[in-house]
Amino acid sequence: MTVERATIQPYVDGVPGRFFYQRYDHPSAAAAEEELGALEGGRALVFASGSAATTAVALGLLAPGVAVAVAEGCYFGTTSLLRRFEPWGVEVVEFDQTGEPPAGADLVWLEAPSNPFLSFPDLAAAAAHPGIVVVDATASSPVLLRPLEHGADVVLHSATKYLGGHSDLLAGVLATRDEERYTRLKEVRGATGSIAAPDVAALLLRSLKTLELRVRRQSETALELARRLAAHPAVTTVRYPGLGDPRAARWLDGGFGGLLSFDVADAEAALRVERRVRTILNATSLGGVETTIEARRRWEGERVPEGLLRLSVGIEDVELLWADLEQALG
Ligand SMILES: *Cc1c(COP(=O)(O)O)cnc(C)c1O
Hints:
By secondary structure, the protein is an alpha/beta fold. The chain is 35% helix and 16% strand. The strands form two sheets. It has a seven-stranded mixed β-sheet. Strands 8-9-12-11-10 form a five-stranded mixed β-sheet. The structure holds pyridoxal-5'-phosphate (PLP).
């Protein structure tokens, strides 16, 4: 894996080539984008983080007077980042993404499934809506969902999670089929200097080789753990796509992603689980090969139940993980 780190490339006969200054484009980003574009069925752009990708959507596709409808219970950083544009005249409203988006929305922001509530958007209702539809598919990964095929205009990933998969890179991705939007978003990325660095883009490309294997394994294990947790006396609620939802029963064939959340009695019980886990890391983030767990109340405040634990299932043996959860809950 050779990484071209030079920030400049000489012009040829006085003419700049595709790669002339790293902030606009560089070979490692281009290689990763080729692969990501094929996975999503569109043209991809890599960013320094998922949040940088969100910022590019906001700067590129919003304007004063525009109304954004954002999925209730989606990644809390997304809602708070979009709300930073309110003083510039952007209106932000939250809505239940399992139903129709609000009529007046110019841009509809969905999360499939939402983190940490695991609600699933009604993609058909959003596609029928006149607004621009952005789907954050971080928790699905393109292995399980390709939103552009369901009528989304832009798909977003925090590549820090499943796409990177090893908790060793911070990156974001946008993909679209619309040439004009692609150009606009790429211009914003260049103007704000939010492209992923060459080493990061190369690591991301490496990770994509095992994406499908990882996500399939994580999904199978997560489904099994979700079922066992649902039967555990110390657990009051389990959230996992398709679990207890007959319309989504097809997802229960092999599972749908490695992310789930569950509730224990209260904050104290959640803290006890965090302190007792041994194999499972008590850490934030998700999508890595190592399983992590954390109570989300510390970051998200009252919007999440105090006993809510978010579990991101890795690739370890299911029995090893269950033994750890059982002793931690015991
Ligand atoms: C983590 C996350 C983000 C933000 O991504 P960063 O890479 O941390 O900036 C956005 N959306 C979802 C669903 C996430 O889980």
